[in-house]
Amino acid sequence: MKTSLILTLVGPDRPGLVSAVSACAGAHGANWMESRLTRLAGQFAGVVRLEVDAAAADALERGLSGLVAEGLKLAVVRADAGAAAQARLARLELVGHDRPGIVRDISAVLARHGLSIDALETACESASMSGEPLFRARAELAVPAGVGLAAVRNDLEALANELMVDLDFEEVSEPAG
């Protein structure tokens, strides 16, 4: 039986951090399943899902705790390796002038309709012509069975008009069967 360990890692960025995590995982027979790793304000930040035999999970956790010596803050959560993925997915993309509250307002609409954010990437950058701050977001969303996307789209479009941002929202997969 397999177990997933979800790691969150944060610490001062330097060469070799990913190597240290992957070496520990490999030493305990774990498979690196997926990750999101980035540098934010000079800090290394990451989320990693490792899959390991249930019998080796405790030893892997003890081994990972040694990463504290590498300067990383670490949290480990166990999850069922065979957890089923959502059958329906939607994608949201947004671009507009930056201002506080965009993520709060968009995520509130999604939560009100019962959609879950599977992945979210955001960035602020300078607009090409004006140089003003431009906010970009891209989200992959899990859509529960029975949720109609027309109502979600209407609420998102109304909010996009209020925020004066461009928003694209589409279903990318239908339920199987």
Q: How many domain regions?
A: 2
Global outline:
flat
- Mean pLDDT across the residues is 91
* Strand percentage: over 45%
Give me the Rg, rounded.
Answer: 20 Å
Helix vs. strand class: alpha+beta
Query: Stretches where pLDDT falls below 50 for ≥5 residues?
Result: none
Distance between the termini: 28 Å
> Main sheet?
4 strands, antiparallel
CATH topology of the largest domain: Alpha-Beta Plaits
The number of distinct β-strands equals: 8
CATH superfamily of the largest domain: ACT domain
Contiguous helical run count = 4
Q: What fraction, in percent, of the residue positions are helical? A: 25-40%
Domain ACT: 91-170
GO biological process, one term: regulation of DNA-templated transcription
Pfam family, one: ACT_6
InterPro entries: ACT-like_dom_sf (IPR045865), ACT_dom (IPR002912), GcvR (IPR016867), UPF0237/GcvR_regulator (IPR050990)
Describe what this molecule looks like in 3D.
The protein is an alpha+beta fold. It has two domains: 2-80, ACT domain (Alpha-Beta Plaits), CATH 3.30.70.260; 88-173, Alpha-Beta Plaits. 26% of the residues lie in helices and 46% in strands. The protein has helices spanning 17-27, 57-65, 102-112, 149-163; strands at residues 2-12, 31-40, 43-53, 73-80, 88-97, 116-126, 133-143, 165-173. The strands form two sheets. The protein has a four-stranded antiparallel β-sheet, with helices on one face. Strands 6-7-5-8 form a four-stranded antiparallel β-sheet, covered by helices on one side. Helix 3 (102-112) packs antiparallel against helix 4. Residues 91-170 form the ACT domain. This is Amino acid-binding ACT domain-containing protein. InterPro entries: ACT-like_dom_sf, ACT_dom, GcvR, UPF0237/GcvR_regulator. It comes from Thauera aminoaromatica S2.
